[in-house]
Write a structure and sequence with these properties.
mainly alpha; 88% helix; 58 residues; elongated
């Protein structure tokens, strides 16, 4: 893996974490199960779309 690819993947990961935290604050989820499900779905979407694009570009 090249350093450029590693940095790109790292930024995709950080983007997914920040989007998930923003969603938790925006929607004011109180229950643990709502946070868990919401964070899983948003994190999956925020990670999978950039990774698919990067794979197709490779």
């Amino acid at each position: 893996m090249t350093i450029e690819r590693f940095i790109t993947l790292f930024f995709c990961y950080m983007f997914s974490v920040l989007m998930t935290l923003l969603a938790v604050k925006t929607f004011k989820w109180q229950s643990f199960s709502a946070k868990l499900i919401g964070m899983s779905v948003i994190g999956f979407i925020a990670l999978s779309i950039p990774l698919v694009i990067l794979t197709l570009m490779k």
